[in-house]
Amino acid sequence: MNMNPSMMQQQRPKSKGSIWAMYKRMFFHVSSRWPLMIAALVCIIAVSLLEFVIPQLTQYTIDHVIPGHKYDALPMIGIGILATAVLLGLFNYWSSLTMASVGQRAILDLRNELYRHLQKLDVGFFDRNRTGDLMSRVTNDVNMLQQLISSGMLSIVTDLFTFVAVAGYMLWVDWRLTLLVLATFPFMIMTTRFFSKKMRFSFKRVQESVSEVSSHLQDTLTSIRLIKSFSSEDYEVRRFADRSEANMNANLGAVKLRAVYEPIIDLLNFIGLAAVLLFGARQTMHEALTLGTIVAFMAYVRLLQNPVKRFSRTMNTIQQSAAAYERIVEILGEEPAVREKEDAVQLPVVRGEVQFRNVSFAYHNGAPVLKQFNLEMRAGEMTALVGSSGAGKSTIAHLLTRFYDPQEGEVTIDGYPLTEVGLKSLRSQMGIVSQEIWLLNGTIRENIAYSNPDAEEADIIAAGKAANAHAFIMDLPDGYDSQIGERGVKLSGGQKQRLSIARALLKNPRLIILDEATSSLDSESERAIQDALARLLAGRTCLIIAHRLSTIRQADRIYVLDKGRVIEEGSHEALLEKQGRYRQLYELQFPQRDETDAKSVTTGQGKPAR
Which domain holds residue 128? Predict the structure, then answer.
């Protein structure tokens, strides 16, 4: 189900995505790599100290070498400057490399944490959110943080050390000149705070517009056959262009803020520089300062202002990262509605006795789908559900697999309430074959073995044979190694369904759920699949959800549902004899068989052997 961004924001918990919280989480991810962080810190301190060398050599040259005509000192000064430049390059290289290593590891951990958390969330969360938006958060938003950690964090830490060291030294050399420079900094801080909030909001709009583009791209590429069948290419191109234009406008808005912010910071820096130059020149003319001192001091002013200028540019990355971090935190702050208890019981091998007791359920606080619903599935028997669309049949399967939890009542299996058992121990004993076939973009072997990755080759082939799939698989150029394409696009509907049955067979589940498994197939494919299902269901508890009543005639018990309630139950023959809702559904599907079935019910010959 698609939802617009405003609806999504209303349903998500309010995020706590401050810059401090962002750095705190990043530090948590890198704290275990303290040797690399110490090495980077040493390099950063060395860089900060080396920054003093060249201004000092400059001052010494102007004040002592030139007036004293010390020609022999010039080679040493040149060597000193070159050596300092080489050491600065080496320490910058080592600090960049170590910080990049730490940062990349932090990003890897964060991306894995985000994906792991997504896997823990319930099916309802994915019903409410768009796939493209979630993909954008795992890829684009995390990449934004990658820029911050790989380059931004290094720049901030290096500049912080340089700023503190240079400011301290300048205060020691001439506190009055230093205060002139520092007087502009409160204005810089206020300017930065003012623009930072606007820039973060602007960059969040950028990230959301990227999400819109990703969602549209994902929707249209996965529905390309629908688009082409309705000749909707031009319509989709226009829709994509609209979203791309929204992304462009959001980016332009962020650029405009940056274009105003950075010149203001530069202006304040030049004001400080001008004040130092004018006041320092006056002091030099009164011989209170030497020429070398004022030249060196001007160099220190540049060293002091460079971190501020770089920070003003880094703030662009910081606010982008903060906006992305807020979107990441929104996902990490989600709690699954279906969760496993800490003391959950690990379900033993089940017989398959299932009971629904007074179950009431509604999706997303909407209209109730089930109301005080009761149902019993006996171990080893075939139970069928029939009824009009929207009667709640698939919802029962979702509750049985615990994709959702009921708001009232309970579902039990072999007497164990589903809310009390481990999710993995429950679902590992279930096999699902549905009308919506889930296949991965890979080989036939990989898709069959998905239910049991450790299965032997012989077991995979046996499952293929039991599902009546082996013959068509061997007709393919690469047999079990044949690529099936995205969602099995290279296979027919019947072939895809037989692969899903083979996958269920390989899992060897105790309980089988068939959700409209043959509703969209032709008669020949249906017969092949019915044979495969007969092997799959042998000795297992089975729940069949069907519109085609021909597929459930052999069921031990049939429940007829209407508006979330059981209105009839019994065998095929007994329900036909009742002349109720089931009889009406049967007559709608098989009007020509009414008299024949009526006679067979009367003579007791209606149910074929299983």
Answer: 5-332
Could you read off the pLDDT of 102-118 as tens digits, one per residue?
777 778 888 888 899 99
Of the candidate ranges 310-319, 322-331, 485-494, 586-595, the one whose mean pLDDT is the lowest: 586-595
Report H helices in 51-152.
Answer: 53-60, 66-68, 74-120, 123-128, 131-136, 142-147
Domain finish residue from 292, 310, 332: 332
Collapsing DSSP states into helix, strand and coil, what is residue 539? coil
Segment 142-162, tens digit of pLDDT: 877 776 666 566 667 777 777
User: How confident is the model at residue 610, as a pLDDT?
Assistant: 40
pLDDT digits (tens, 9 = 90+) for 500-513: 888 888 888 888 88
- The DSSP call for residue 402 is T
The answer to whether the CB of 153 falls within 8 A of the CB of 314 is no
Size (the chain), residues: 610
The continuous run of DSSP H or E covering 375 comes out as strand 368-377
% pLDDT > 90, the chain:
5
- Is residue 535 within 8 A of residue 456, CB to CB? The reply is no
Q: Which of 463, 59, 460 is nearest to 295 (CA)?
A: 59
* Identity of the highest mean pLDDT range in 42-56, 100-114, 558-572: 558-572
As a whole number of angstroms, the distance between CA 414 and CA 544 comes to 19
Task: Say how far apart CA 518 and CA 176 lie, in whole Å.
Answer: 87
How big is the CA angle at 252 (ends 246 and 257), to the nearest 5 degrees? Answer: 135
Taking the C-alpha atoms of residue 558 and residue 382, their distance in angstroms, rounded to an integer, is 9
Asked if residue 180 and residue 200 are part of one domain, the reply reads yes
Q: Best-predicted range by mean pLDDT among 40-49, 176-185, 360-369, 372-381?
A: 372-381
List all residues 6 or more positions away from 584 whose beta carbon is below 8 Å from its beta carbon. none
Of 510, 482, 488, 511, the C-alpha closest to 500 is: 488
Where does residue 177 rank: exposed (0-12), middle (13-18), buried (19+ CB within 10 A)?
A: buried
CA angle 41, 324, 140 (to 5 degrees): 100
CATH of the domain at 366: 3.40.50.300
Q: Which of 308, 332, 356 is the last residue of a domain?
A: 332
Question: For residue 489, what are the contacts with CB-CB under 8 A and spacing of at least 6?
Answer: none
Beta partners for residue 511, in sequence order: 430, 541
